[in-house]
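name: query_chain
kind: protein
chains: 1
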Amino acid sequence: MKVYGVTGWKNAGKTGLMERLVTEITARGLTVSTVKHAHHNFDVDQPGRDSYRHRAAGACEVLLASGTRIAIMQELRGAPEPELDDLLARLNPVDLVLIEGYKRGSHPKVEAHRKDAGNPLIAPGDSTIRAIAADCALEVDRPVLDLDDTAAIADFILREVGL
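structure:
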């Protein structure tokens, strides 16, 4: 599987770019999975649901399955957060895995940047960032792509990974 990241500070447009890239790349006939890192506590389940009740009772892992999807919820219960490589090993094979977040990961990335967010660029100190998708002109030592030109960003990523 090929792996490529989208990184950037909060409100930089990462999630919107991820969504557009998945749509664009799957429309080209490639299979895509995603990994999203969250810096906060989150829950994909709802109190009162059977699966939530299983976890609340102490289950380490709950697998929820239907005719349309499967969800596996794992409780770390004090164990350390798994490394990105360990998480990637759990995925079924696809052409491309797009990773949102994981700024410190060693995989290649595009940095999303919005001028109005007021954050500094990550790229100058990070050689894993191969290009910047921005809504403004930038003077940097790597390609700057238009944040709204999803096809051009997809072309760049697919060339980078050889797809």
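note: The CA atoms of residues 113 and 134 lie 5 Å apart.
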